[in-house]
Design a protein that fits this description.
eight-stranded mixed beta sheet, 236 residues, alpha/beta, 8 strands
């Protein structure tokens, strides 16, 4: 399978632990699958199929079989800036009926035509990006009118927590709160009704990994800074 190469872009290299974690069942079941389930629930209208489906920041490709099964694309595209991850993805997805096209490119310089994608999936990718404003404009550019963006992201509160700082590596000065991410997506021109936004508070998105609640029965505060935001946006 051909992997189209990227221009030389500055990005923050993930830790060895981070790359290992993206291949675990914890990631696949408790992070990726939970996000997809929530995003599907938020979609205001569901088409029978989406001809062109793309994942921006597909990592090791765990999302691609799930997107293929859910949205029945005629063209399935996985994008990542890391060629090592894409080579692993090529091997992992060789069995799919819809063979993915794999593009090695930055999210702020997507190698796709204007108005060429029906559904764009961006899961736990934005907090890795250095130029987030340019990336969201690229998302808007490549989506067709009426195209759907499925966006699931960890917020500044989570990325700045001690456990994430210890285990992973990110560009810390660009991290955003949940309201800031929502404002960013809307400012790019997307339509995002309040009913298409959710703020999950899952065990893995807490600094203590949920131990206070599970072990000591201490409930999280009712008013808190959100650690996750999931939203469904539409290009008018």
């Amino acid at each position: 399978m051909e992997i189209l190469s990227k221009p030389n872009e500055v990005h923050v290299e993930e830790t060895a632990f981070g790359k290992w974690f993206l291949r675990t069942n914890v990631w696949t079941v408790h992070v990726l699958e939970r996000a997809l389930h929530d995003l599907e629930r938020l979609m205001p209208e569901r088409a029978h199929g989406y001809d062109v489906v793309a994942d921006v920041g597909c990592g090791f490709g765990r999302s691609l079989p799930k997107l293929d099964a859910r949205f029945a694309p005629k063209r399935l595209i996985g994008m990542d800036i890391d060629p090592e991850m894409l080579q692993f993805t090529a091997n992992e997805t060789a069995h799919l009926q819809t063979k993915p096209e794999l593009l090695c490119c930055s999210s702020s310089n997507i190698q796709l035509d204007d108005n060429s994608v029906d559904l764009l999936f961006c899961h736990q990718t934005f907090h890795h990006l250095v130029d987030q404003e340019r990336a969201i404009n690229e998302f808007f550019r490549v989506l067709k009118p009426g195209g759907v963006l499925l966006f699931a992201e960890s917020t500044r509160r989570y990325i700045h927590s001690w456990i994430i700082r210890l285990l992973f590596r990110h560009p810390m000065d660009v991290q955003k709160t949940a309201p800031e991410y929502l404002a960013l997506v809307r400012s790019a021109g997307f339509s995002v009704p309040d009913s298409a936004v959710s703020y999950p508070f899952l065990w893995w998105s807490r600094e203590d990994l949920g131990l206070l609640e599970t072990a000591f029965r201490i409930s999280p505060p009712a008013i808190k800074e959100e650690t996750l935001i999931n939203l469904v946006a539409v290009k008018p």
